[in-house]
Every structure is written in C-alpha cells, then in structure tokens.
Amino acid sequence: MRLANLVGRESHKQWKVGLITIAFLALITSLPQLYLVYVRGSDWNGSCAYLDTDEFGYVAFTNALIDDRPRRNDPYSGKDDGAFENFYSIQFLPAYGVALPAKIFHLSTSTAFTILLPLATVATGVMLLWILSEITGSIAVAGIGTVGVICLGTIAALHPFEIFTGLREPLPLFPLFRRYIPALPYPVWIATALFMWRALTRNSNWAILAGLGFAILVYSYFFLWTATAAWFLVLLVLWFILRPVDRRRVWRVLAILLTLTTASLIPYAWLLMHRASSSDSSLLLEMTHAPDLFRSTELYGLLLICALAYLWKRKIDGRDPRFVFAISFAVAPFLIFNQQVVTGRSLQPFHYEQFVANYWIVLAGFIVLGTMHNRLQKRTLIYFAFTITFIAVLIGVHAARMTLSMNVQLDQARAVVLRLRQENNGGVVLTSDLLLANSVVTISRNPVLWARHFYTFSNTDLAEQRKRFFQYLYYLGIDESRLARDLQNDFVARWEIFGAHRANPVLASSHTPITQEEIDNSAKEYGAFANSFDSSLATSPLLSYALVSPNADLRNVDKWYDRTFVENSGPYVLYRLQVRASH
Asked: Nearest to residue 192, comparing CAs of 225, 219, 214?
C-alpha cells in the first residue's frame, strides 16, 4: 500500500509539473497575440499576431485552400491549377492540417492561425516533455528542458561573436513557431526522434513509426526532413560504432527506415520534377562544393562534443544510450552544413541554423544534464529553472513589443480588406505599402499587382517580378530620384531590383555587394520605364481596386483609371477602379 501511494504521488507530481510547464509555454508564446488584443481593445478586428513576415505566404496559401481553391493555387497572381509545382504545393500537409479543421468549424483563416500557435506550443511541449522524461528519467529536468529547448533555441542560432558584440539584429523570436511551418510538423519531428530512441533501446519495430513520421515531414518542410535524414545516418553510424552489442538491431532499424523513406520520397521526387523552372533561382539553390565549418551550431556542437569527451573519461559511460543519442545531435550539424562538399548543392543553409540545428544542440545539452541529474544538487536545478523561466519571459515580452506595430497596422487594415472580400470578384488590387501587398491575400480572394512573396508561388522570373515592381512604383508616384535613394538602404527595393542573394548576404555563401553604378543604372532603367508607360502596361494586369492610405499619391493611377470610393476604415481607403474609356 505504501509503495502504491508513493507511485501515485510521483505520478501526480509528474502530471503537475507537465501541466504547469505546458501552460507557461502556451502563455509565453501567446503574448504577442494577447498584447495585440489588449492594445486594440474594442477596435480589434480579429487579426492574428504575426511573428514573422514569411508567415504571410503560408497564411495566403491556407486561405486559398479554405476558399476551396486547388492545391496548386497562387493567391498572389490569382492563377490556379498551373502546370508547375511550387514549394507550397509540394509541402502541402501542414496547410491542409489547418485548412480542413477551419472549414469543418467555419473558422476564418486569421482565427485558425490564432488558435494554431498555442496548439502548436502545447503539442511541441508535450513531445519535448515526453522524450526528455523518458531519456533522462527526471521530470524536473524534462520540465526545465522543455522550456529551455523552445526558448534557448533562438539564442543558439546566434554566433558567439554576434552575441557578445551585438553586431547583428535579433533573429525572429520563437522561430520554431513560425506558422504553419515549422510550427505544425515540429511535434512530429520530436515524435520521430522519440520513436528512434525506442527503436534502438526497446524494439526495432518502433522504427516503423519513425519512418512514418519521416514521411509526414517530407511533405511538410524541406529543411526538417532533410535534417532528419542526416540525423538518422549520424545516429545509426554512432550507435553501430559505440554499441557493438546492438549492431544487429541497428541493421534491422536501417532496413525499416530505408524501405519507408524510399517509398515516401518517390512521389516527392515526381513533384520536384514538375516544379516551376524559376524555383531554383528564386530559392537561391547554389552549386558549390565549398565546406561550411563555422556556423554557430557547429561551434556549439563542437563545444558539446568536447564536454562529452571530457565526461566520457570521468563520469559517463561512452556506451550509455543516452550519451550516444545526445552526441548524435551534436555531430549532425556538421553533416547538414557540409553535405554540399559531396552533392555540390546548397539551399539556404541558414534555415538549418535557425529552425533545426539550434534546437538539436539545446536538446542534446539537456539530455546530458539529465544523465547527471542525480549528481547535481537540488538547488542547482532550482537556479537553472529560474534562469530559464526569466529568459522565456524576456523573449515573450520582447516578441510582443517587437511585433506590435506591424500587427496593429494589419489589424487596422483587416476591416477594409474584409469589405474587399465581400466584393468577391477576384479583381487585382494595388496597395500603398509592403505589409498590405503581402497580407491582402491572407484575407481576401483578390490577387495583387505586386508583393514580395509573388515569385514564391508563380513561375515568374526576375524580369517579370521587376516589371511588376516598376508598375507598383509608378502607380504610387515614385520617381527616378526617389528610387535611387531607396536603393541605398531600403531592403525591399534592393531585394526586388538586384535579387535576394544580393540584398541579403545571409541567404547565400557567396555575396557580391551592390555597387553605386548598379544603383544608378537601375534608377535610370526605372525612369525610362515610367516615361514610356502606356496603355498596354496599364492593363496588364488590369487593376480593379486600390487599397491605399489617404495621402497616397495616385496621380499616375488617375491617368489610366477612374476611381470610385468604396470604404474608409482606419488609416486606409478602398477605391474601385475602372479603366478609362479613352484607354
């Protein structure tokens, strides 16, 4: 009876720690949404709080699916069922994971994405608690580690030099909760790691679930499934070397994984073969064999490997499954950042640094801590818990403050965009600022003249993207001298004119700075474009609406279109446009 009571109390304690941890995380990651609602008060129009501007594309794609548009939809151009795949249509599982429940429960896209963040937090937290408690055997370490992995992952993506010198702007906060990827498939990735642990320590049949988890990741997020494949290889090789007693089991696990991963990758390869021809250039696929050895997570991984080597000699059995599992996470970053030495292909490796390897390193650190928790004083764990909690609160508050201005602007625009949705005619919209250009399609059914995410959906080359950008500038009354000034410092203008790889050195390993001569030539090119603007450009595409601020300069619009006032809401005005009869 006494033993039963002790077991019952221990189980109750674990449940209590787990519930407190999950509730705390859900609150912390929801602070941007809660702060937005608080600031807007009764004026809140129902917008979700965005953490990252890349979320616009994912919300737009999901919005189109909720509106019963096909998988190969293009919300920015309005052209659906094209002949080509894009990375949204290939990585379709998370989008349908949001769209189908939204349709069943009649939720708007904004509401669905508002709910998604705390749900993804809870699911991720549960899986982290599960895997850490099972591997370490300590619910205290699991609770601390769950908060630590989620909140310290951002810091682990920063290079040590950047942390101590402050030479770089902060990374997106809570990057793993960028919706819908990697937020939705991330719990699946953790579950896949848990299944691999069980396959190698209990029964090899658990590898079947690991393989199925991998299949889900394949159609969810490129950087998660490729990183998982690399980690599978590292883990199995290390397990084979360090645990000779398990070699037969390793072969069985490998056979299961090869069967399931091959089966899941065959349809994926077919989809890739039908991708848009502009995808490789727009996504900055580099052909290079150069090694990449100094990423932040590689340096942290090296430190962890050195620490494990030290502990191996003194306190840890190198054949301990927990040790092997932890060291696999520390070694895997070296493979994913240097696979191009063999393959000759590198695709925006910074994604691994921000969304994958940083969490690997922190997770490995807490696994190691868990193996030693019996030797640590209780007071040490308490201090550790308070420190992690304090960092989590700071990150959550900072995220709320950093995103507030953008989210208030989007919420102010939501009311008038909902009116645009009621028009329900699919007409092309001209907007007066970048946020509206990217976000109109997340609410309405209307395509836009130009947006930064335009090229990610369409089979659009840089020349067509630039033409649309020039049209956008022309309609808003931007002249040649203004563009020349913008090209000095404006990130968006530099991106559109010179390409992402020239505007952002983080995106590619080789970076060529933009010269003053190129800026001058581009400004002159735009000046010639504006001076030769004619009816064919004015009607290709044909504009139907202008969603602009009241002080927007629309004189060039008025040369080609008649404007009719529709609605004024907050700081925005909606006009209906009709091409002039003379044109």
From this structure: 214
Instruction: Return the biggest CA–CA distance within the chain.
Output: 94
pLDDT in tens, 28-61: 999 999 999 999 999 999 999 999 888 999 999 9
- 320-335 pLDDT, tens digit per residue, is 899 999 999 999 999 9
- Calculate the CA dihedral of residues 460, 466, 469, 474 and round it to 10 degrees: -140
CA dist list (Å): 92 to 70, 87, 217, 222 = 11, 8, 10, 11
**Angle ∠(104,30,367) on CA atoms, nearest 5:** 105
Are 34 and 400 a contacting pair, CB within 8 Å? yes
Of the given ranges (163-172, 239-248, 335-344, 365-374), which has the lowest mean pLDDT? 163-172
Angstrom distance (rounded) from CA 333 to CA 340 = 13
Counting runs of H as helices and runs of E as strands, what totals does the chain give?
28, 6
* CA–CA distance, 3 with 195 (Å, rounded to integer): 30
Which are the contacts of 435, defined by CB distance < 8 A and separation ≥ 6? 406, 409, 410, 413
Average pLDDT taken over every residue of the chain: 87
- Compute how many other C-beta atoms are within 10 angstroms of the C-beta atom of residue 8: 10
Which residues contact residue 297 at a Cβ distance below 8 angstroms, ignoring those fewer than 6 apart?
156, 157, 333, 337, 352, 353, 357, 358, 360, 361
